[in-house]
Amino acid sequence: MFKSLQGRSAIVTGGSKGIGRGIAETFARAGVNVVITGRTQADVDATVADLGALDGTVSGVTADVTSPDDCRRVVATAVERHGGLDVVCANAGIFPSGRVGDLTPDDIEQVIGVNFKGTVYIVQAALEPLAASGHGRVIITSSITGPVTGFPGWSHYGASKAAQLGFMRTAAIELAPKKITVNAVLPGNIITEGLIEMGQTYRDQMAAAVPQGRLGEVADIGNAALFFATDEAAYITGQSLVVDGGQILPESPEALADL
After folding, report:
1. Stretch 18-44: mean pLDDT, rounded?
2. Residue 154 belongs to a domain
3. What is the CATH number of the domain that holds 36?
4. How many domains does the structure of the chain reveal?
5. CA proximity to 70, closest of 22, 129, 11, 128
6. In a domain, 206, yes or no
């Protein structure tokens, strides 16, 4: 789609499943050489095998984004394999459910650790090679839940996703002199393994709340992230793009009743 991306180097954290896998596939189809991370070797290996015949290469590293050391190792691996690093997609995330009154300190730390701290750590680890590229890009996978909407059971998740955007805005200012942009994609309900596990009834309810009448595909998020990574998006930083089929627009379910 964008010729400026061919041959560039990217990291996609949490790239072995779900939205991250979709981002990795979209980037590789555009000729980007991608390193994905995942928590288990089997998942990483399976995704690398499945995406092995695209225009860009896809390789993998097992890593825990809550570990700054692991994040530095991932960045060093991408630089070694591809000769540099142009794009970091901070995508790794978890969304366990828990009501406010039931959340334990461990529940909160786990979600904040992966979703927010993991974003900060991978960006910190990548600063030097991103600056050296002359066109560094950071793309954060946030969510409509937290920054825009709320949903029972995901107060800690929503807080972590809102925190990502607070980080994004100041990081975008600090990194602008280094020609690094920092932007975020806010997915609505996207068909992933996690959503499928929540059952058909939940999926039907979520689709009914979307004006387009369907759930999103992982490629919808991949395409938005791809745009932020391009030279054509060089003058966009500190911004968030909602990709949700119009889900956040209706005032109430009645607004969709006559569609």
Report:
1. 97
2. yes
3. 3.40.50.720
4. 1
5. 11
6. no
Closest CA to 17 of 208, 213, 218, 198: 218
The structure tokens listed for 64 are 């825990």
pTM: 0.95
Alpha carbon 82 to chain centroid, angstroms: 21
Question: Is 180 contained in some domain?
Answer: yes
Give, in degrees to the nearest 5, the angle at Cα 162 between 159 and 167: 120
pLDDT, one tens digit per residue, over 32-66 is 999 999 999 999 999 999 998 899 999 999 999 99
Pairing of strands 33-38, 9-12: parallel
Domain span holding position 43: 3-190+217-239
Residues 6 or more apart whose Cβ sits within 8 Å of residue 225: 23, 26, 27, 89, 139, 141, 185
In a domain, 99, yes or no: yes
* Token representation of residue 81: 């394999």
Q: Are 156 and 112 in contact (CB under 8 A)?
A: yes
The pLDDT score that the predictor gives to residue 205 is: 86
224 contact partners, CB below 8 Å, separation of at least 6 = 185, 241, 243
Query: Is the pLDDT score of 258 beyond 80?
Result: no
Verify whether residue 121 is a known catalytic residue: no
Mean pLDDT across the chain, nearest whole number? 95
